[in-house]
Amino acid sequence: MSFRLAAYAVCIEDGRVLLARYVSPMGGSNWTLPGGRVEHAEDPFDAVIREVAEETGCDAVVERLLGVDSRVIPAAVARAGIEHQNVGIFYRVRITGGQLRPEPNGEIAESMWTPFADVACLRRSSLVDIGLALAQTLPANGHVAPVPVGGLVQH
Predict the structure, then answer these.
(1) Do residues 130 and 147 make contact, with C-beta atoms less than 8 angstroms apart?
(2) CATH number among 3.90.79.10, 3.90.1200.10, 1.10.10.60, 3.40.50.150, domain 2-138
(3) Prediction pTM value
């Protein structure tokens, strides 16, 4: 089994959420939240700000911790073909500057502010639904029920 610790930004403004379109090196794409791997010895709080800047071109500040999600992705659908556990730390983040642009030499082709009503129509990572559920419900224990994967919602 592989393991990844990641930090994700839930940026909400005027009934919209900031999404990033991930393009796989093997083809295909889906929408996700800005964020990614926490590097060795890096604080997840710092990682989410770094990831927002790298992937979107925007400056950000963390407003609050929303929660933590842990999921195991079966080998049959995991990128590397082996079972994979992803532990994601979700933060409510506010954009303070910069301009949206593709990730230079990266896998994020574009970022856009998406109205909440439009999210359900997008092919997206389950991380989007988890982050929005955490932001909308603010559970005291920082945990939401697992998001079903299928149809437009992918691992």
Answers:
(1) yes
(2) 3.90.79.10
(3) 0.94
